[in-house]
Amino acid sequence: MEPALLLDAARSAQRDWATVPVTERLQFVRHARHALARAPVEFAGTVARAERSAADTLAMEVLPLLEAMRFLERRAARALRTRRADRSDRPLWLRGVTATIEPAPLGVVLVIAPGNYPLFIAGVQAVQALVAGNAVIVKPAPGERACLAALRGAFLLAGLPDALFQLTDDSVETASKLVAAGPDKILLTGSSATGRNVLRAAAETLTPTVMELSGNDVSIVLNGANPVRTAATISFAFALNASHTCIAPRRLFVERGVADAFIPALEERLAELAPMPVDARTRARLMPLLSAAASGGATWSVNFDTRAETSPPLLIKNAPDDAALHATDLFAPVLSLRVVDAWPEATHLANLQPHALGASVFGPRGEAAKVAAALDVGVVTINDAVVATADPRVPFGGKRQSGFGVTRGIEGLLELTYPKVTLDNRASFRPQLKRNSKRDEEKILASLVRLLHAGEHRRRSLRALLSAVVRKKKVVEPD
């Protein structure tokens, strides 16, 4: 079906869906979650990533997705409630006016899915869009349509109208046509370069977007960190999903006092890892970056074969701080290490990087918390990396070239709504409708300003205002 027709069908279905109470929308989520959980291995098998085992997919995609769905079942109804503005903050001149704010659905949300976590990331975004009252169209990552078709099938079996959750083919051309057709919001998870292209196209229709873009994440190891456990954690996060993780550690700062114990432990862990796939495009991007870093004094202990489809982990030491390697988003098994005298140097260099998605800090909790506060990124983990970001309670998003807006958590749910405000004036006393001279209006308003905001002049201003408005006498300017 042509993108314009897809949008029309989705918009038509969404008008009715928006009137369905949130609690009823969540019934579809619950039924779909239960159905998927009854056959978890089969569901995991719909993800096509060849380098993964079923256990990996269950841990990285199926379980986090189902946890996110259950979180919505528990918390979404409260988050999407219409609220009344607090009367205690109501301006004096609006006495009698009530204000309500409703998180209203946007309409049709387009989700452009990534290839590294094709089920979890797009699945959470699609479910949040539906729970918020939108229709959703998902453009799957190349070769990864089956897993999202399984998710959609579970919703359709639960009774969801098919036009509310539509799945396209996986081509770039289809994505481009859908963006040009003008959905009501676009959620993109991808590289910084892809983000720029989608933003340019979305600008033509003024379509708002959430950009969940790549990172070049920093890890900081403090004096007092457990060197063996920290090395194991960083190695695990670095290798997770064959290093195809946007918040995997890529640049490592180690305080000098722990370096002698930590670096050998890390090298031992990295040496145990199997070579990881590196596609031809990434290899072509990586080679000039490595050459430039080497020219600046960087070294590494294993060879990078430009013709090989896999690579062992590359632990790069002594790369210049301004190396382009530190400013490039790559899905490749490359980790740059630098020893620093103290952590302020590390946070300063980290905050200069163009990407600002995530970071991790290892060490005593009090000191690590100070370091986390100094890092200018979207997500910081303390004494962990990557794994904690699957927490369904928290939003996920970055800054600068890592994008803007958030997905997941309550904040991600509210990203898929807009605040619809209703003001109801029940007051019979409306002095603004009276015919007063401009001079009288000036005196009344000046007295009102003094009454509300002039501190010690408030009492005299109140007498003047009452004299003018209530008793309809001439305003007497306070001394």
From TrEMBL:
The keyword Ribonucleoprotein does not apply. Gene3D superfamilies: Aldehyde Dehydrogenase, Chain A, domain 1, Aldehyde Dehydrogenase, Chain A, domain 2. It comes from the Bacteria. The active site is at E212. Keywords: Oxidoreductase. GO terms for molecular function: oxidoreductase activity, acting on the aldehyde or oxo group of donors, NAD or NADP as acceptor. Pfam families: Aldedh. Residues 7-420 form the Aldehyde dehydrogenase domain. SUPFAM superfamilies: ALDH-like (SSF53720). Belongs to the aldehyde dehydrogenase family. This is Aldehyde dehydrogenase. It comes from Roseiterribacter gracilis.
